[in-house]
Every structure is written in structure tokens, then in C-alpha cells.
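Lecture 7 notes: from sequence to structure.
We start with the chain below.
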Amino acid sequence: PAGEEDILDIGCGGGQNIANFLRRTKGKVCGADYSAQSVAKSVAGNRKAVRDGRAEIMEASVSSLPYESATFDLATAFETIYFWPDIVEDFKEARRVLKPGGRFAVCNEMASEAGTERWISLLDMRIYTPDEIVENMTKAGFTQTSVFTQGNCICVIGHK
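Predicted C-alpha cells for the same chain:
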């Protein structure tokens, strides 16, 4: 039911999206990040929810998420797929942890390499266009992909 979704934020960073989701659902909100520093910051910023069992934040790679299959109603990736090692396989891993009918939302502020060359070389990142994200989601088994844009920001949603 709406308002009771279980949510996973992949690449949760400092935990701001976890805090936002906790205000929008009574379900469990989980975060995974490969950086121990990010996990520590995310846990500190969501201390009460972690203590109360409403949030769980773990150090983990997107390539091997430490969750059972069909656990979440929604998985998100904000500003993080730029660094994922194998986009199709990692999208498959996100799909694995979703319940049937679950959704995967990829949201990026950079959707074109034009004008971002400095960041690409500095951070060893890969920029994906909305079409490339849709194509990779489709390869990973997602259906009914939708693309939303606002300025340079994009959000692509795929359904399991």
C-alpha cells in the first residue's frame, strides 16, 4: 500500500535521501554504499531511524547487494551509476532485490558528456544518456521504462 513501501537507496552517500524517504513511508528504508565513510555519515544522520529499526545502512557494492531477492518496492540510484563497474549486471542486481512490480529509479544531474569532460577525467566516471540508461535497463530485464527530464536532470524509472 502507498506509504508503506520498503525502499533501498543504492549508493546512499551521506544519507540525505534516506532521511527524505523516512518521511514518506512507514516501510523500512535501507541504504548501501561502497564507502565506509559514507555509510558512517549516513548512519549518523539517520541515527534514530537506525536505532528504531526503520533504517538499515550497509557497506556494500552494487554488484553484490546484501539483501534477499524480492525485498524492496523501490530501489533508487541518485548520482551514482557514473561509477558502477558493470552497468547491465549492476542493474540486474538492483532488479533482483525488487519485489514483482517494484520500480528502479535512476536520477542524474549529468546526462551528457558535453561540458562534463573535466569531471569525467577527474573522477573516472561514465556519463549515460537517458537512451543509454533505458537500453541498459531493458537489457537487465526492466520493462515500462519512463524518462523524465528537467533542465539537465534526468530520472529514468524501470519496472520489474
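Points to note: The chain has a mean pLDDT of 92. The radius of gyration is 15 Å.
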